[in-house]
Amino acid sequence: xxxxxLQPFPLAVLPDPAFALDGEQRVVAANPLAGTMYRAAPxxxxxxxxxxxxxxxxxxxxxxxAGRAVSALPLTGRRANGVPFMVDVSARVLDDGRxxxxxxxxxxxxxxxxxxxxxxxxxxxxxxxxxxxxxxxEYVRVNDALCRFLARPASDLLGTRDQVLTHPDDRASDxxxxxxxxxxxxxxxxxxxxxxxxxxxIVWAAANLTFLRDEHGxxxxxxxxxQDITERRRQxxxxxxxxxxxxxxxxxNRRHFADELTHALELMARDGGTAAxxxxxxxxxxxxxxxxxxxxxxxxxCAVADILRARVRRGDFTARLGGDEFAVLLVDxxxxxxxxxxxxxxxxxxxxxxxxxxxxxISASVGVVSLPRDGIGTDGLMAAADRAMYDAKAVxxxxxxxx
Length: 403
What we know:
The chain has three domains: 3-105, Beta-Lactamase (2-Layer Sandwich), CATH 3.30.450.20; 109-233, Beta-Lactamase; 245-402, Alpha-Beta Plaits, CATH 3.30.70. Helices cover 41% and strands 27% of the residues. The protein has 15 helices and 16 strands.
């Protein structure tokens, strides 16, 4: 049956989304409301098999072959982007043999009514955030606990997509997991994710999401509950920082710097590239402690840490290894550029005024090692940089020696 023979039938005047099928169960005409339902232009539906638009369309096909009408047949629709949705289909065979299908999607009230029998009482009373989403990810019901957690009234949440409130860095993983659930790979998803409140504050939630289906197996909605773990994550961050950072200067400590160096070597072994390791030692720093006390020495060490921070790029790694010894890992850096950074560090430290250490000369010796080196791992590179630094110190300090 060609599309031209369908023109006399006024699909556009029907009050519901509708399309017509030929004897091969392919769409030959669709009204604008059908395009809206399927998130596609109506003309793009023409030529598509009914199985692309409706899952489990067997009962509809059987009715067409038998020449009988069906009313409110519960089926699963499939939007142009692949998202499933609940739809009731009524159909009748026209005089010329075409099958006229009229569709009605479950509205927000019906989604809530269908889901209510599963958990209605617990939903409102549970002390953690609860939400229902449409298959497209829009909030259709929220409880007070979730409103408090997100710092938004229910009126702001309803109709809003969860992705809008999710931290940008967590959106991609959320979308990937959602599609795996929609494809039927699993029915639940657990993760820890961030939300952004209206004032910009970031809060953490342990999220547990389940995809519900009705008695016909059609997609009903997402159900999610969210436990506030912001304080736990804050404490974990503090403990992690204490484990990774030097408590005086807040630079990386020796152990974590070694981990980053090892990781850089692994990346270069896999992907190629170059880097450089700088080992920096303050000359005659003992004089500061002896003349002005350890508190003054601590002030000098913190000032040196600031000098190093100001002279490296974001993505480089700076550490205090202990005492007056520092290290810098310059990633994606040539030996020539590393030498310039080392000279800049020496000039910065030598030119800095340290009021707490008046009368003491503050300078630095730097050893520079290029990376990678065949057969030399983290410990070997640190030892090589240490030797280069002491060679520089032996000739008077303030000198850069490469190894």
